[in-house]
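During the no-cost extension, the postdoctoral fellow (Dr. R.K.) reprocessed legacy sequence entries with the updated structure-token encoder. One reprocessed record is reproduced below for audit purposes.
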Amino acid sequence: MVSISEQKQIIIPKVKSFLMEKGFTMLANDEVTFIKDEEKRIIKTYFYFSDSGFSGNTLFSITFKIVEEIIVKIGLPNLALIHQDLKYSSLSTIYDNESTYNYTDRKQKIGSTPITPRSRIIKTEDLIHWFNAFKTYINNEGQIFLNKYPDVIALNKKLTELRNAGERSYSKLLLGGIDHLFRALIITAISRDNHFYEMVKTFDSLILQDKYAAWHPYYEKLKLILTNTEPLVNTKMI
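Re-encoded structure tokens follow.
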């Protein structure tokens, strides 16, 4: 088995050099998280290491600034939002759960079909296989994911597809528990979608149940903010 320190010594410099060429930076004081800070969104991936062979990395997550800034503004009952700077925050809007990749622990499937079994890091050569798989993902499926969701308007288009398919939950696209519904409402509001008030009615029936009482003040604050989004919306950020 390859030690954690040896794994980091071999793969992190390779990843750093590769991602820097694509405009990513290593997050300050964090040798395993890489971000690309764009005008509208922050793209993230991070690496984790284990001495039992289950090292890996996340696929791309995207933090849409205009969405998550509103989440920070209202707060969440289940998450202490310590970092106001979204680069350091754990908040993300969507995650790539469509691509196939053998070096991640995040549950992935295409439709109802699970991906191939998780690859392990047993020998030094496995680190090279991991890095090559990572490069392939970044250059192909990862880039397709990023191109698919360049802005909030693209997110809203996907929400509309899900809604037209009869979905009441949007967890197939958006991250979070109850707060994924908050994100759906934010996206709909700032996209000036005519379905906003219809969605509010639907979400009222879902969120304003007694078992979600802790979420009610945050939800009511969100609705108040979103009914007056003009001061919040910079059209360059949508």
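DSSP finds eight helices and eight strands in the chain. The chain has two domains: 4-60+96-148, 152-237. The remaining legacy entries will be reprocessed before the final report is submitted.
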